[in-house]
Amino acid sequence: MDFDLPAVKPSSESTDAEDRSPSKVTYLHYRAIVANDWDIEDDDLFEKAAKAKLDHADYGVIEAERNESLLRSAEENDLKWPFQCRSGTCAMCTGVVVDGDAEMEMNLFLEDEEIDEMNLRLTCTCFPESDEVKIVCGAIQTDYVRDIARNRG
Ligand code: FES
Question: Rounded distance, CA 115 to CA 96, Å?
Answer without folding.
Answer: 9
